[in-house]
TrEMBL record:
Keywords: Repeat, Signal, TPR repeat. Gene3D superfamilies: Tetratricopeptide repeat domain (1.25.40.10). TPR repeats lie at residues 73-106, 107-140. Residues 1-25 form the signal peptide. It comes from Bradyrhizobium zhengyangense. It comes from the Bacteria. InterPro entries: TPR-like_helical_dom_sf, TPR_2, TPR_rpt. The keyword Repeat applies. SUPFAM superfamilies: TPR-like. This is Tetratricopeptide repeat protein. Pfam families: TPR_2 (PF07719).
Amino acid sequence: MRFQKLIQMSAALALSAVLPGAAHAATGGEPAAVAQIDVAACLTAAAGDDMDKAGPACAAVIDNEKTAKPDLVKALVARGALHARHDQIDRAIADDSRALLLDPTLADVLNARGELWLKKGDKPKAVQDFGAALRIDPNHEKAKANHKAIARELERIGAQMAVAGKPSFNCAGARRPVEKAICANRELADLDREVYAANARVIREARNEGEAKKLQREQDDFIARRNAGFGRSGFDLKKAMQDRLQKLNGVDGY
């Protein structure tokens, strides 16, 4: 009997050397409990906009390799939102990006990061995030509104780039010296196109046909004065076009 007890004790000691805590189990003791990472303090501080408390509380969760994935995502999203509210854009993007690596299905976070890209002036990345959010949740209202607005803006920019430096008329058919001067100067060409577009707008918005005809006569008179004045001493073509554009747009710049 004594020899059998010695064998059992030897086996227990050998097991404890391989598996920590096994000795406790072999002798009837409880294994050491694994400390749980509490994300609540991080979430509460972030929701309360308390930067002093949220910083260390969230870092304790995010920097701990034992933090469970769901809690890590929650902490990253909460801290990212807090950084965004305090205009710490790069930090917010970093937290959102890390959260999305862990869970790419977070439509709210994709939309939030898209808004952050917009603040940084990176419209292509913004529209990419908004589109990704909508692929996950086609009914995401904020993402839909953001995507629509930025898509229109990019379309407008693309259209402007396509006609940049081009006047309202075909330079290949330019005969008058003033027209050739406009075609040869990018700034004047842009001004001419803007004047043409503004005039088309005010005519389109005229209250009746009579008012529309009156507005067109004013534009025709401007063109005639521009053509006659070009080349004469003291005539400033750029200023004349700028003045016409301001008159068409009104004092409020409409």
